[in-house]
Amino acid sequence: MLVHGVAWNGAASDGGTPVLRVEPEPGTFLEQEVGAGTFLGLKVQDGLWCLGHTKVQGPGQRTHVTCPARATAERGRQCGACFARDDSRLMHDFHRGGAVPKGLRAYLMQPHWLYVATFAGGATKIGTASAHRKWNRLAEQGAVQASYVAHADDGRVVRVLEDLVTRELGLVQQVRGASKAAALLEPRTGVELAAHNQSHAAKVRALLEGVALDGFEVVEEPWERPALAEDLCASGPEELPAFRHLYPAGFDGGTHGLELHALCGSTALATLPGSEGAFVADLGSLKGRRVEFGDYRTDVPALQDALF
Questions:
Q1: FRET pair for 124, CA 20 to 30 Å: which of 143, 164, 265, 288?
Q2: pTM
Q3: Do 171 and 125 touch, CB atoms closer than 8 A?
């Protein structure tokens, strides 16, 4: 089964539902639950594989195309041919006059939101989300605190604003997944992160108030964090040790068995059968890997010798 990553379904009103999305056969998808109380046992094959490419038909409508060559990954999680055919790569130049297919244009012309997201270590970014992915995008990115700062008529306007904020205020547009996971070993306090996020959001709103551009309005709206992320973003459940270890077994091979307790984005707080301690594991690093689910275990004795 080819892993396509962790997705958050549902909405803020029900706390969201995280799943590990896998492709057992070309064009067929299954969703493996990764919520609290789930045991995730898997064997990872060697290699990193192309995830294919996406064709966009319009708002909320897209088609996944399996890599015809079932090739290894060359650029991120794609081979060169699939990268060149992927509609989503074109959206980043649309606001600069880049040509896009009809379906992608329809997607980009729907309303979008501009947000400021802060992660467990304090790293903060500016980003965008389409109207129908407003809540889920931030959940999947693993934000700990976030604020919506503008609502735009379309994706062109929102990306102009995003670039403006980066240029004028220095807020980045990307935070690496590995650094998000590492920061959850010792997350900064909720009060501190909330203040940090609100400070950046206020600066962005002040900047946008003076922008002479039609097609958007400045907003002040907090994002609601998934309930399942609470124990990972704070000190953790009382029944788990306060001290956390970074999960030391790489997901680039071998067998793994984790009992999941919390999830923030694609980062899990887990325990290992037969082992003491709590572990922070980046399930996002499974993306592009071929796995087999089963009653597998992580090599606990080796972990204990190295860590305890």
A1: 288
A2: 0.90
A3: yes
